[in-house]
Amino acid sequence: MGIYTAITSVVGFIYFFPVLWIILTAFKTRPDALAVPPKLFFTPTFDNFVSVFYRASITTGTSQATDMGLYFFNSIFIAFTSVGLALIVGTLAAYAFSRYPLKGNETYLFIILTTRMMPPIVVIIPIFLMFRLSGLAGSYWGIILLYTAFNIPFSVWLVKSFFDELNPEIEDAARMDGASERRVFFRFCIPQILAGLSATFVFGLILTWNEFLFALLLTGVETRTVPVAMARTLGGEVGVDYGLLAAIVTLFLIPIFFVTFLLQNQLLRGVTFGTVKK
Amino acid sequence: MTIDLQKLTKRFGSLTAVDAIDLDVGDGEVLCLLGPSGCGKTTTLRMVAGLEYATQGDVMLQGKRVNDLAPRDRNVAMSFQFYALYPSLTVAENLAFPLHAEGLSSSEIAARVTTISDTLQLGSILKRTPGQLAEGEKQRVAVGRSIIRDPTCFLFDEPLSRLDVQLREEMRGEIKEVLQDLSRPTVIVTHDQLEALTMADRIAVMRDGRIEQVDTPHNVFQKPANLFVAGFIGTPQMNLLPATLTKAEEAGRAEFAVEGGQSMTIEVDRRVSELSPGSRVTLGVRPRNLEISSEPADDGLSTQIDIVEPMGAETLVHLNDGHHDLRLVADWRVPLAEGEKVHTRFPPGVTHIFTENEQVLRTQ
User: Fold this and answer.
1) CA quadruple B102, B105, B106, B109: dihedral positive or negative?
2) Taking a contact as any Cβ pair under 8 Å apart, which residues of chain A between 147 and 176 contact chain B?
3) So what's the ipTM on this one?
4) Per-residue pLDDT at B30 exceeds 80
């Protein structure tokens, strides 16, 4: 037992080290952040976190509120809405695929999967033009619909595998005991795959949360997400402000940390679903 | 209250799972659908339950055609192979679930749950969820949930297949007792002949979507209608020996030639005289009915003992005449040695004779 704990701790630490370094950097002053050799012990400062939201303008020198608060709201709103939508649509579709086998189901499923086979950048020009023409560019609904579309294939496939694992006898039993089809679905199927739904939600959330390319091209000033805003702090006349960047990243990690820890137990069951013999 | 199936057929695409079967189950009767896997027995059960649509034919419950009714409108109770307990509900809630649909008051529901849990000794586990139960307890809860209502009939899909041998014997008795008290038409699907023989009033043996024979357990065993039923029912399996009729006399004495040049004169059914000499037949004799003799006999074959398998009170002997394997069950006290040459006798009246189209020849 002891040796496994030790190995796990070492491996865990190696994986976590870059994250830890970012978090440490967020508390460093600029000289500390750039010091060679790197400093492990230093006097922590909260200046970086303050300047995420209030920063001195380079031209006037006065402290001004940044739009970072809005961008955090955008990231949360866009990611949660689109992943939630994809999960709802995906779960309904997955149930249909799993329980009502029709001719050609395999083909439909394959076609759904093909949308994830190419790198997204391939379709960026047509999507950009579609968004320009339809007026979706720069709007919340535009980027939310796009992310939803990206998440649906993934949700359908994952959730279908969870439905496939269920014992259909339970649904039959419920039908015989007087349950309607709607009740069978909501009362008996959904509760059994909550762990799977949580896992699907978190995976989708992480992918969407970190998405940069489409957000860069298709969001406007008002709907910009944090990854895009983060990239914009990289340039500038005074070089890269690593402390500021690290502070944004640290704040950016918090929602995902929060969701993951909240769903930790469900997640573990979700990812091991079907791997353990019942 | 009865179940009546008329020309019931189920096709899945080009596959015919159930092929125009006729079957009726009377009030209080327990009928077992017995057959190898894939013979259509579960599909038949599911059509009675309403979980599968019938392609053709009718399902009649209490004389009423129910083909187009949803499962919940048929008032049929079913117990499933994997128990199908609702995982998020406790045992008490599982038992009570079918009653909610009937719109009973909560005090009435509680009273019925108590009655059932007393009958099946579930009192101590009412608060647990299915995940915390042992296999035998799950089976009990599943049975309890199916009998808690007052349905027109009961359906059991492989009720004991998941239990270990000891528990299976115990539950078999318990279920039989419960079914006797209920006296409703009951259909049990099983692939286990012992289960069918012990629990059923009548057995329907199925193969490839057809019913091969419907009869009492005794008759299915003693008077198999055809080669399939003869080979399927009984352990160890009936010996089936291909032979050619050479001479048929009155009163059922007939001479048969078997591959390898040996011939024997044995007593079979009188209808053997309907066959002309040279007919190909199959002789069927149960391992417990064969006899061994050290003296040559013209009502048997000379054989050699291949393998001796002690089974406790009895010994299973594998015999070989150079072309066929024969199984024989002898009392454990009979001294037998592998490699020994013995004569295997076919005593009068125990040999079934099957014609070339696999049907039995038997005087009614």
Assistant:
1) negative
2) 167, 169-170, 172-176
3) 0.81
4) yes
